[in-house]
Fold this sequence. Notes:
Elements: H1 6-25, H2 38-46, E1 67-70, E2 73-75, H3 78-88, E3 95-99, H4 105-112, E4 116-121, H5 124-137, E5 142-145, E6 158-163, H6 172-176, E7 178-188, E8 194-201, E9 207-215
Helix pairs in contact: 1-2
S-adenosyl-L-homocysteine binds next to strand 2, helix 4 and strand 4.
Amino acid sequence: MYEDTLRHMGLRKILVGNIRKNFIDSAGKKGINFIVDDRVFEVMEKIPRHFFFDSAFEKFAYDDNAFPIGSGQTISQPFTVAFQTMLLNVKPNDRVLEIGTGSGYQTSILVELGAKVFTIERQKPLYLKAQVVLKKLGYRAQFFFGDGYKGLPAYAPFDRMLVTAGAPFIPEPLIGQLKVSGALVIPVGKGSEQVMTEVIKITDKDYKVNEHGRFSFVPMVED
Ligand code: SAH
């Protein structure tokens, strides 16, 4: 358990190389109308994604697919993780709220990019497990068990927010907890598909919305 071998590193390099190629080849399509940021690929090449899998399934960790992590949830597809992380455009020391900790893989990426990460999960076993894995990796984040629709008013405001589950609508409390000129990345849609949505807070009362292609996430559930 928790061993990162040359073989893993090799598989990871190939996976990230393929995702990078997909990004470059499909620029303008798939909603990639933003700057491709190599920092994100560097971080993904560094973090052992197989640590977030049960050891029996670790051979699936370097396929570009979502995969079950228990409690009826999935770790997001690596392409999607790269996409959301790039849209989020995190700067070192940004306060970032993540909704849907899941395995903690996306959390680790945000920490490695230098963010101060606050992450919320509503499935207790996942909330507990993710903390064990991040500790193994030496990454520090603040973990919360609860309902992400409410955000984290006690820790607001945030520079960035990332929702990793499909939301039927944009939760108002989240926009309220964003800094002016801050941004929220959230897949929005009621069915099996969502539109990757970027919400930029312009003033205290006003925000603008950009849309970036279709994705498929597990649903964001309201408690
Ligand atoms: N970022 C995760 C993706 C997990 S899938 C990863 O890299 O593994 C989305 C997660 O959102 C699931 O774990 C699900 O339980 C969680 N979720 C759904 N609705 C939620 C809510 N209202 N509040 C907090 N977490 C929620």
